[in-house]
Amino acid sequence: RPFHVEPTNIVSVNDDVQRVTDEASAMNKRIHYYSRLTSPADKALIAPDHVLPAPDEIYVYSPLGTAFKVDSCADGCGKNSSIVTIFMIWNTMMGTSILSIPWGIKQAGFTSGIILILLMGILTLYCCYRVVKSRKTIPLIDTSNWEFPDVCKYYFGSFGQWSSLLFSMVSLVGAMVVYWVLMSNFLFNTGKFIYNFVHDINVTDIVPGTNGSYKVICPSDAGSHSPQNSSVMFSSGNNTDFELFEKWWNKSQTVPFYLIAVLLPLLSLKSPSFFAKFNVLGTVSVVYLVFLVTVKAAHLGIHLEYNWFTENEFFVPEFRVLFPQLTGILTLAFFIHNCVITLLQNNKNQENNVRDLSIAYFLVGLTYMYVGVIIFMSFPSPPLSKECIEQNFLDNFPSDDIMSFVARIFLLFQMMTVYPLLGYLARVQLLRQFFGNAYPSVVHVLILNVAIVGAGVAMARFYPNIGSIIRYSGATCGLAFVFLYPSLIYVISLHRAGQLTWPALIIHIFIILLGLANLIAQFLL
């Protein structure tokens, strides 16, 4: 006997089946993505709980930022709204570069610095847009689980694979070195503040500075005195104990080694997933830094004098030949190109990807601009010169400054929780390529960790210049992921489709040359 089903019911059943199939496909993609990041024996990034959401909620995770829950409707289950996507991108890009932006503006000149932040933001945004579109240039292959290094491997073979690994390691290890230098700095100043407070010791740094409640110092103008431990005690306490403390609590000679006892064991953990719970501190730290900058500027006032090309005792020219030092920092400050595809593929409305990416870049640039410009404008010149702005602008505030003390505490704890995550990512990328396992043995992991920690200790001991380290690593990894590969892949795809024009070719060759010039200039200036 024939079985009759109403056509409307067929459509309804098909819709339900299609919806369930889509949700299952999306779930498999997420599981596959996390599985590709680590070895099967390591459970740190294999289908964590927040990748298997309840039907009415989803947890989103930003590796360098925060984890939070988003409610979603049935039609968009498992997808993020535009506001969440924008926040994730902003949260991921905001990092330690913000501490060096004021120094970069000083190196470039005030007017030149503002222009460069705008231009570098636009240029890196365009290259990031090319990265997002790169997967669509590959025909007849399912690229839904691919990130940009996979696209590089498709176009350039083993060279693309290994070069992507090399430049990715440069960015990771460079960030870990900067973190070690900063953690040594913050731990030193925090310990000094606590010791002086507990022992009721009043000290003053032997460095030039302003007077008053909102003191600003110039460590780089300390002459023959080392800014690390140069201080004079004014209390009648035990001078011997104070001198002994300063001997064993030195920013460059002892404190970087003390961190080894805490961080080296943490790097050796098989799973660093516990530390991801504290990444919300990254957002808190950035918000607090913006607050600190605002309060300091309100009390210090504005100190500007326009000298377009000449330098005087207290001010720098508006345009300086050292401007590539800022572009090197900004290359890393706007760097998100190796993971932007993953962040955008969970956007609920894919047609808004370009808009959301542009808004996120605008907010990142606005944050950098605000902090950099406000610190530069409010820096008290005279009596101090603008040349006194440090590569870490917190160094321009003495260790007994309460607001700076709180900022250092936040940043120290946040960096100590992010550092094992960066080490884990470096281990996964490097050891899996060579040994097929993210944790081949304790010896392999220990050798890698000792090498990474040793690089950080050496830099904190002999070259604690975070601005320079950031610009070197930023210009190096940026040459590949920001300027070279996105432009080459776009030109190759246009050529294969028979759509390559001379203007497009010239423009993208010019972008590549800009990236190459940016890298070369870091070693010449």
From TrEMBL:
Annotated catalysed reactions: L-glutamine(out) = L-glutamine(in); L-leucine(in) = L-leucine(out); L-asparagine(out) = L-asparagine(in); L-tyrosine(in) = L-tyrosine(out)
Cell compartments where the protein resides: Late endosome membrane; Lysosome membrane
Topology within the bilayer: Multi-pass membrane protein
Record-level GO cellular component terms: late endosome membrane; lysosomal membrane
One Gene Ontology molecular-function label: L-amino acid transmembrane transporter activity
Segments passing through the bilayer: 83-103, 109-129, 162-182, 253-269, 281-302, 322-344, 356-377, 405-426, 438-463, 469-492, 504-524
Statement: the UniProt record of this protein carries the keyword Oxidoreductase: no
Superkingdom of the source species: Eukaryota
Keyword terms of this UniProt record: Amino-acid transport, Disulfide bond, Endosome, Glycoprotein, Lysosome, Membrane, Metal-binding, Sodium, Transmembrane, Transmembrane helix, Transport
Domain Amino acid transporter transmembrane intervals: 81-192, 252-521
UniProt similarity note: Belongs to the amino acid/polyamine transporter 2 family. SLC38A9 subfamily.
Protein name as it appears in the record: Neutral amino acid transporter 9
Originating species: Dryobates pubescens
